[in-house]
TrEMBL record:
It comes from Propionibacterium ruminifibrarum. InterPro entries: SAM-dependent_MTases_sf, TRM61_C, tRNA_MeTrfase_Gcd14. One of its GO terms (cellular component) is tRNA (m1A) methyltransferase complex. Pfam families: GCD14 (PF08704), TrmI-like_N (PF14801). This is tRNA (Adenine58-N1)-methyltransferase. One of its GO terms (molecular function) is tRNA (adenine(58)-N1)-methyltransferase activity. The keyword Magnesium does not apply. Residues 81-246 form the tRNA (adenine(58)-N(1))-methyltransferase catalytic subunit TRM61 C-terminal domain. Keywords: Methyltransferase, S-adenosyl-L-methionine, Transferase, tRNA processing. Residues 277-331 are annotated as: Disordered.
């Protein structure tokens, strides 16, 4: 195995060696991850496969068990490693990580803030994007998660990244004063940290919040509008669908990666400059009496007052079907 410690991309070259991870794949699409060890044996329902049959050979070979089951052998790609590595917390899946790196325009040498390390999956994508000259400051509330993430990252890269630091603690309480070009928040209540992050994010910098529910998504978007120092947020969801192509038999495959989360992305304005607001009025009821979140700056006071006045009549709060039933009973 040959890996350049100065490269810090995690790419390995040369023959496969003991201590490396490899991915075995059969013709049915079943995949297995092995940590190669001299003298070890991989057991299947169709016989065993000795690790020694792989060690010392190049990638791209075909090996067979004693029962004739064939596997291709390759080193795992980054996205394969992140879904098979040890984990203490759920990971951001490759389809979302790819969108984060792309739409936040993470570049070599960037200064990036990350909150919610989990098992280190997104950290690996960010570290590869920023290269050996960039910096990534990650915040994680749980020491166990931070320890697992550090081990996963160092195993894949082959060495500690000199620009990566993990702080164990709450982001709002432990954030440093260093300026950052990009900020990615993967946490339960990212809106609580927008003020703190905005003070460190450089003008033109990008903020991305990864959330899993529509309630979180709406709260983050309204908090950014309420803050005023960010442009109108872009909100996306990514779906990946496999396809089958064989002769004239072309159809969607059986594997589809649907909802995993939403990305709420916005850009920082210059200090003291408020972002323009939408001229159109919000949809009826969008900020009605049941709404208890931050109020965007484009929501006029008279709009809120009108919603509140409509709510003063208790009958307006009763669903129509129930009102109809009450009238039948003479109430």
């Amino acid at each position: 195995m040959s890996i350049d410690p100065a490269d810090l991309s995690g790419v390995r070259r040369g023959t496969l060696q003991a201590g490396e991870r490899v991915t075995l794949a059969d013709m049915k699409g079943h995949r297995h991850t092995l940590l190669l060890a001299e003298g070890a044996v991989f057991h299947t329902t169709k016989g065993a496969l000795a690790h020694d049959d792989i060690i010392g050979r190049p990638e791209g070979i075909v090996v067979s068990t004693v029962g004739g089951l064939e596997f291709t052998v390759f080193r795992p790609l980054l996205h394969e490693y992140t879904v098979s590595m040890p984990r203490e917390a759920a990971v951001i899946y490759p389809k979302d990580a790819a969108q984060i790196v792309l739409w936040t325009d993470v570049f070599p040498g960037a200064r990036v803030l990350e909150s919610g390390v989990g098992s280190g999956a997104l950290s690996l994508y960010l570290l590869r994007a920023i290269g050996p000259t960039g910096t990534l400051h990650s915040y994680e509330r749980r020491e166990t998660f931070a320890r697992v993430a550090r081990g996963n990252v160092e195993e894949f890269l082959g060495a500690p990244h000199p620009g990566w630091t993990i702080t164990v603690g709450d982001l709002a309480e432990t954030i440093t004063d260093e300026p950052v070009d990009r900020a990615i928040l993967d946490m339960l209540r990212p809106w609580d940290c927008i003020d703190a992050v905005s003070e460190r994010l450089v003008p033109g910098g990008l903020l991305c919040c990864y959330v899993t529910t529509t309630t979180q998504m709406g709260r983050v978007a309204d908090q950014l509008r309420h803050h005023g120092g960010f442009i109108e947020p872009a909100i996306t969801e990514t779906t990946v669908r496999e396809w089958h192509a064989e002769g004239l038999a072309i159809r969607p495959g059986h594997g589809t990666s649907a909802h995993t989360g939403f990305l709420v992305i916005s850009r920082r304005m210059a200090p003291g400059v408020l972002a323009p607001v939408k001229k159109r009025r919000p949809a009826p009821g969008a900020y009605g009496p049941d709404y208890d979140g931050p109020i965007p700056r484009n929501v006029a006071a008279e709009h809120l007052e009108a919603n509140r006045s409509r709510a003063t009549d208790d009958s307006e709060l009763i669903p129509p079907a129930i009102r109809k039933a009450l009238r039948r009973r003479g109430h």
